[in-house]
Amino acid sequence: MATIFLIDDDSSIITLFDKFLTAIGHEIVAKAYNGEEAVKLFHEFRKAPDLILMDHRMPIKDGITAAKEILILNNTSKIIFLSADYSIKDKALALGAKYFLEKPFKLDELSKMIEKIISEN
Amino acid sequence: MHVIALFGILLLIFWRVFGLIISIEFLRDLKESKFKILIIGWFIWILAGCSALLSDVFEIQILTDIFLLINGITVSIALLFVMMGLFSYFRELSGKTLALLCIIFISFPLFAFLLGFYSIAFNLSSVFLFLIVIVYSIVPLKERNTFKNKISMKSYYWYLIVLLTIYFYFLSYVIFVFQGYSFGFYSDEFSIPMFVNYFLGNISTIALIIYSIHLEYDISKIQKNKLIDKYSHDLGNIIQVISSAATLTHMNEDLNKEKAENLDLIQKKCEEAAKLIKDIRKNQ
Q1: Closest Cβ–Cβ partner in B229, B236, B251 for A104
Q2: Which of B149, B234, B237 to mutate to test the interface with A (most CBs of A within 10 A)?
Q3: A109 vs B: CB within 8 A
Q4: B251 touches A: beta carbon within 8 Å
Q5: For residues A85 and A37, which has the higher predicted lDDT (pLDDT)?
Q6: Longest distance between any two alpha carbons in chain A, whole Å
Q7: For residue A82, what pLDDT is reported?
Q8: Domain locations in chain B?
């Protein structure tokens, strides 16, 4: 089981990922709807989540900027980018994201990726 | 006016009309405000050509000089607008700066003309013209990586060709003026400098038009990619929601066979749509 921080500006996606990840045994510790909110919430965590699922194209602050700031706060944070912006894949991985999943993807792919990261630990 | 000068000016007007028509087409197709600036530029440049022709129509010297003055001023303002239009997607010039430059370009030669310094008045416009070209060649070359990222390599090479032809034009102009030839080369007698002046003037105008056509292609490509990017992103998110909702519903063990088959169908179609989106992105 992993503790997961969900970040996406689409509330439907947040709701569905929350339901799915909870159903397969993970714990959603927080949800944020833009990059700025994500960084702010990350500041307030007593214990960093095992995984951060990050969208890119969001209002106020995008995923790449938010990920950079989160990694400055905690460089061991494991970030998986879940984005429909394939063009930012290289940028996301270069800055320290663990994986990049291009939307739309099957939920199975996401669960396999999470299992992989947990097993790496 | 010698037939070479007359033919050279008429040909220049023809290219400028061509440039104007292209800019109007660009504005209609791409709806980019920069083409309004280009239209103004090409239009003033046509007026400049007409004033050059009119300078030879009247027998009265003062009228000839006035049209030559108008020619000098309009050419410098026209080039400012055309260069500004072509480079505005790279570096914007504020309305205030443009207005200030126009005032300088008009008032300085006019002031010199009113004081009776005709030669200075005509050549001042050429100096302004030269300064515009220097500024618009130094800035993009100084920041060439940013500049090259904004346009295609083809456009970049045409930009260099434009610069090369304009610099040749100016260099020959300066040399000939120092040899004693007068502004505009509107002499009745044939001379090599007259031919070189109009030949290079026409070549640089043609290069400028080709460069603007390449730019139009670049801008339309950027617009197309932006649209593909936006719609594939938004559609990707929508399909993600449909596909995820279907998967979650499928996880419910109470589903009867028919509902399960329907969900399978939704998921299958979502996968096909996802593949289509990825193909569109690849072909961008």
Answers
A1: B236
A2: B237
A3: no
A4: yes
A5: A37
A6: 34
A7: 94
A8: 3-221, 227-282
Residue A116 within a domain: yes
pLDDT tens per residue across span A60-112: 999 999 999 999 999 888 999 999 888 889 999 999 999 999 999 999 999 99
CB contact set of A100 (below 8 Å; sequence gap of 6+): A80, A81, A83, A89, A92, A93
Cβ-contact B35, B23 below 8 angstroms:
yes
Neighbours of B188 (CB within 10 A): 9
Least confident of A101-115, B99-113, B216-230: B216-230
> How many CB pairs below 8 Å do chains A and B form together?
57
Q: Which domain holds residue A113?
A: 10-88+97-120
* CATH T-level topology, domain B3-221: Rhopdopsin 7-helix transmembrane proteins (1.20.1070)
> Phi/psi zone of residue A103: left (φ > 0), alpha (ψ -120 to 50 degrees), beta?
beta
